[in-house]
Specification:
Layout (H helix, E strand, L loop, with lengths): L1 H15 L13 E5 L17 H9 L36 H6 L2 H6 L9 E5 L10 H7 L5 H23 L4 E5 L8 H6 L3 H24 L3 E3 L1 H9 L8 E4 L2 E8 L9 E3 L8 H19 L12 H7 L10 H5 L6 E3 L14 H9 L21 H9 L7
Parallel strand pairs: 1-2, 2-3, 3-4, 6-7
Antiparallel strand pairs: 4-8, 5-6
């Protein structure tokens, strides 16, 4: 150890004297894997609303690539699973974790991670693994499945999500991993499954999957977004549903759905009663920006700025009520985010040690895939800036 310590001290003195290159502005290109929460609403009949991906692109200039029309694709489509939306958004309406794999969401996005390609990815899949339109939901709700059958389903879906995460991890892209929302909380589900106690039984199975997703985030150094907890904060629980949510001193009607002609933008959900309306999706957009800031803002010239309540309402064409009121209900976004990033742990043994240093030095001076082989600042090269970052975390145990 003394020899290693002397080597590190020498390296530190040399590197800290070196001029660091300019930091990137923010995300170079954001990719996404998931379901209808993340798939562009522009693809659906409720295209009068905007989901979080659309809001980040349109109002915060977060790049997700061109639409198929902008790229002059034949028929103005990328073909399945992306259809016509943003180049790096692979999320597909109706997709569960197995569907995300079978349709190639994970491999498609992974192939886009290269110099000047996708630098970060949001993975938000799992809610449809307990979709109320499936036999899974029906069987758990009515008590037809034993706990061992529930365990088997959870284990299979967790394995799928681990496959997705590991595929993206191998590219070096910065990862934001979201846990699953309880689909049983939305108006359309409650209309069919009216017993709150039985719905909570399914919610317990979703929580079981979410515990597994957290372990996957930890093992793969991802930033975890507790989408499940955030959703229950804004929607309520099965036993105690929220009737309204104050945004900008305006009451969003949480038990209501809009009409097909968008005559009630104050409703919490679009006309299908299953998908959050523009205002709620604005809060989800803030949550995603907060996750990106938590993981990588220290490497950027500036963090993303959260939408104000006034901006959230404006995106839905709702007049501002005069004061910012949402934060009093939901609290700081950071409480729903847990960072398991450990950039120096290149060999994923949950600690930053000399074995990692050997890997950094082996790639020193090389051009690599961003975020891999010791490229800690994801600028596609291993240089003095990366060694400075590595030394700052040397000896730590990963969270």
């Amino acid at each position: 150890m003394p020899r290693h310590a002397a080597l590190l001290a020498t390296l530190a003195s040399m590197l800290l004297a070196a001029a660091a290159p300019a930091a990137p502005a923010q995300v170079r290109l954001l990719g996404a894997i998931g379901d209808s929460l993340t798939d562009e609403y522009a693809e659906e009949t409720y295209n009068y609303a905007r989901n979080w991906t659309m809001q980040l692109v349109q109002y915060r200039a977060v790049p997700m690539g061109q639409t198929a029309a902008q790229a002059a694709q034949p028929g103005n489509t990328w073909n399945e699973p992306r259809r016509t939306g943003y180049w790096a958004n692979w999320a597909r309406y109706g997709a569960g974790s197995a569907d995300a794999i079978s349709t190639g969401q994970h491999t498609g996005l992974a192939a886009q991670v290269a110099p000047w390609g996708v630098s970060h990815a949001v993975i938000a899949v799992g809610a449809n693994d307990f979709n109320p339109q499936t036999n899974v939901y029906f069987n758990i709700y009515w008590g037809l499945w034993s706990q061992s059958q529930i365990d088997s389903h959870v284990n299979a879906r967790a394995a799928d999500i681990a496959t997705i995460v590991q595929t993206v991890r191998a590219t070096g892209a910065g990862m934001v991993l979201c846990n699953a929302v309880d689909f049983g909380l939305v108006p359309a589900s409650r209309q069919v499954y009216s017993n709150a106690t039985r719905r909570a039984r399914v919610g317990a199975a979703v929580a079981q999957l979410n515990a597994r997703i957290e372990a996957i985030a930890r093992q793969n150094h991802a930033v975890l977004v507790d989408l499940g907890a955030f959703t229950t904060t804004i929607v309520g629980t099965h036993a105690n549903l929220r009737t309204s949510l104050p945004i900008g001193n305006v009451s969003i009607q949480m038990l209501n759905r809009d009409t097909a002609t968008n005559s009630n933008p104050l409703a919490g959900f679009v006309d299908d009663g299953a998908h959050p309306h523009t205002t709620l999706q604005g809060a989800f957009a803030n949550l995603m920006m907060s996750a990106l800031n938590t993981g990588w803002a220290s490497l950027w010239t500036s963090p993303y700025q959260m939408f104000t309540d006034a901006e959230i309402l404006a995106s839905a064409n709702i007049p501002y009520g005069g004061s910012e009121t949402l934060s009093a209900v939901i609290g700081p976004y950071a409480q729903y985010i847990r960072s398991y990033r450990c950039p120096g742990d290149i060999d994923f043994d949950q600690s930053v040690n000399t074995s990692d240093l050997v890997l950094v030095l082996a790639s020193f001076g090389q051009t690599v895939q961003p975020g891999t082989q010791g490229d800690l600042n994801a600028d596609a090269g291993v240089d003095t800036a990366d060694l400075v970052l590595f030394l700052a975390g040397f000896g730590q145990t990963c969270p």
